[in-house]
Specification:
This protein has 116 residues and is α+β, with helices and mostly antiparallel strands. It has a single domain (27-114), classed as Nucleic acid-binding proteins (OB fold (Dihydrolipoamide Acetyltransferase, E2P), Beta Barrel). Helices cover 22% and strands 36% of the residues. It has two helices and seven strands, in the order αββββαβββ. The protein has helices spanning 2-21, 68-73; strands at residues 34-39, 42-44, 51-56, 59-64, 86-93, 100-108, 111-114. Strands 1, 2, 3, 4, 5, 6 and 7 form a seven-stranded mixed beta sheet that branches. It is globular, with a radius of gyration of 18 Å.
Amino acid sequence: MLSRTALAVFATAFTAGAAFGHHGWGSYDVAKKFTINAPVETLSWQNPHAHVTLKYEGANWDIVLAPVSRMTLRGLSEEMLKVGTPVAVEGYPSTKMTNEMRAERITVDGKTFELR
């Protein structure tokens, strides 16, 4: 009986921690969709989400992309987003973080990749 209780407590704590660790998309303003056309300044190709930095209106914007596995399955690779590569990213601004965008799609070399 004690081991079942301990297992239940552990499972509940682990699930709550995992849910807390992953953010939702509610902190992005979907009414303000916009597009940034700029060359890639930096790339972070890692999970839980890849990121690129783009210059937009005189500021550096952190663009939150999809998980690496999703982008890879859809044909987008790390090599396609090298520093200096021109891209167009369509997405939504964060309501909490200045100069952060959640990307819905990215166009690289004339090909558009859906990220959601």
